[in-house]
Write a structure and sequence with these properties.
Shape: globular
Largest sheet: 2 strands, antiparallel
Structural class: mainly alpha
Distance between the termini: 53 Å
Strand order of the largest sheet: 1-2
Number of helices: 12
Radius of gyration: 20 Å
Helix content: over 70%
């Protein structure tokens, strides 16, 4: 019976990405009526769920932290493509889209995904345990890149408004790529053990217990299906984005809400994967996904939009406002206090979720 269920699940996770991609092709650059948007949204959810399945297969085959890195980078690369596409289509009103989406990704990953993962694991196992060395390294990189890319533009004077001059933007983009590249090298080569799950006693878990890894063929199929699913997720998200923008405008909400919604849709695969890891008491895997996604979002988006700004007609506004800078500072301080003890209780998870709730409230009602 279990074998049959697995076979059905395998077929479902192959069929849905392909069908979702076909839906994307049929609806690309088309004005969609309401009922079609609802159908597209259903396939969007299906593509997200299949992406999570294939990411877990790849993670099981390659081992940690490579599995979480594959999902984080894949999602972020396509997220960057979505941001650049929407900026190209949106004109001046999309000048803050990159900033809003990147900051939303940081808040959702560092407070939402991390907070939920800690809360789930701590409730089930009393405390959530993780490796402070790896988590602390990721936090240091996030704090550095977020400050250089999102805070400094508010205080520079070479260009009017909260934006960089060409020289400053080039520096920020180069620094983002270098720091992110060094982090990936540290995570996967030099100090891989810092990013592996640990037991409550501190023993490093280098492989999944009681489970045989998938074959190379199965991993290859999952890698292909993961790519198809993620392309479908972001493409379909772009297809429904005009409906989202119209709904935001009709509701009288700030345009920054569009960036929040985009970040939530794109990060849904990582959220589900992180929660499933937390249920298995692999909190370090959850933190790798959360903090790795935040770091990839900054480290890859800023260089991409820096290059795109050379041919985009509108301005590129990256600097955060005072309220968002306060939330970023609070997030970094809370992350530091969460990481240092190497273990967390439900309280820490709830506090991070409270910060995320504050961010959402301010996005809806600045």
């Amino acid at each position: 019976m279990i074998t049959k269920l697995r076979a059905v699940a395998a077929q479902w996770t192959v069929v849905i990405p392909v069908v979702s991609f076909l839906v994307l092709v049929l609806t690309w650059h088309e004005e969609l009526p309401g009922w079609v948007v609802a159908v597209v949204a259903c396939f969007l959810v299906g593509a997200v769920l299949s992406a999570v399945h294939h990411a877990e297969v790849i993670a099981h085959w390659s081992g940690e932290p490579f599995g979480s890195l594959v999902l984080a980078v894949a999602v972020t690369v396509i997220e960057v493509a979505l941001i650049v596409t929407l900026m190209a289509d949106g004109g001046d009103k999309s000048s803050t889209l990159a900033r809003d989406t990147v900051f939303a990704a940081v808040m959702i990953t560092c407070n939402g995904i991390l907070g939920l993962s800690i809360l789930v694991a701590a409730v089930k196992y009393r405390t959530a345990v993780f490796n402070a060395e790896g988590t602390g390294a990721a936090l240091a990189c996030i704090a550095t890149l977020a400050t250089l890319s999102l805070v400094l533009p508010t205080f520079t004077t070479s260009s009017p408004g909260p934006q960089f001059s060409t020289t400053q933007l080039t520096f920020a983009a180069t620094a983002s790529l270098v720091v992110y590249g060094l982090f990936v090298a540290t995570q996967t080569v030099r100090h891989r053990d810092y990013f592996l799950p640990v037991t409550p006693e501190g023993r490093v878990l280098d492989e999944e217990e009681h489970a045989f890894p998938p074959t190379i063929r199965a991993a290859g199929i999952s890698l292909l299906m993961l790519a198809v699913a993620l392309v479908s997720v972001v493409g379909l998200a772009k297809g429904v984005s005009p409906t989202i923008e119209k709904a935001v405008d009709d509701a009288g909400l700030p345009h920054a809400v569009v960036g929040v919604v985009i970040a939530m849709m794109v990060l849904l695969p990582e959220t589900i994967a992180a929660l499933r890891a937390a249920v298995r008491n692999r909190v370090q895997t959850s933190l790798n996904l959360a903090l790795g996604s935040a770091l990839a979002s900054i480290g890859l988006t800023i260089p991409a939009v820096a290059i795109a700004s050379s041919w985009l007609s509108g301005p590129l506004v990256l600097g955060l406002g005072p309220a968002h800078m306060v939330l970023l500072t609070l997030t970094i301080v809370l992350l530091t206090l969460t990481v240092i003890p190497r273990r967390a209780t439900p309280l820490q998870g709830a506090v991070h979720l409270a910060v995320l709730a504050g961010y959402v409230v301010l996005a809806l009602n600045p």
